[in-house]
Design goal:
Its main location: cytoplasm. It holds the Pfam family FabA. Its EC number is 4.2.1.59, 5.3.3.14. One of its GO terms (biological process) is unsaturated fatty acid biosynthetic process. It is found in: Cytoplasm. The chain is of the alpha+beta class and about 180 residues long. It has one domain: Hotdog Thioesterase (Thiol Ester Dehydrase, Chain A, Roll). About 15% of the residues lie in helices and about 35% in strands. It is built from two helices and seven strands. Strands 1, 2, 3, 4, 5, 6 and 7 form a seven-stranded antiparallel sheet that branches. Strand 5 and strand 6 form a beta hairpin. It is globular. About 35% of the residues are buried.
Amino acid sequence: MSADQTSAPDAPSRPSHFSYEDLLACGRGEMFGVGNAQLPLPPMLMFDRITSIGREGGAYGKGHVVAELDVRPDLWFFPCHFQGDPVMPGCLGLDALWQMVGFHLGWLGSPGRGRALGVGEVKFSDQVLPSVKKVVYGVDLKRVRQGRLVLGIADGWLEADGRRIYEASDLRVGLFQAATPAA
């Protein structure tokens, strides 16, 4: 298999969606195994469910993830960002996109712990206010490298109540295995 190949013909079938309880299990390290990709636990877990994930599809045909967050006025960040002017921090929406790219790499069976490595460009055209009911996030994989180097590069977006308000290009996430201590 090529190190750039996004799917293996003999790869086992994987679920195409995940509940909140599934995402919590991932955050506890129970989904992909010890030392492998994990989502953060609440409050830093930025979505409630993954509604679609695949090794094909998306804008580039190399994989996709779609996730949703039910927005409630009592979410932890609204009272502190900003008092009297509540808005979801844009960096949390960006982090959700990185979380999804890392989850995709773990879902493919790649080993290692996920780390955000960068982003090309981010554009915010509006904001997520407490009046929003649902945020939908999407990432479209552009490149998946599985080998000694595990790397996902994707473009991402955020929609608030059906209107696209964030776009990010070249989100980069790598999976890294812990170095073995010298004997």
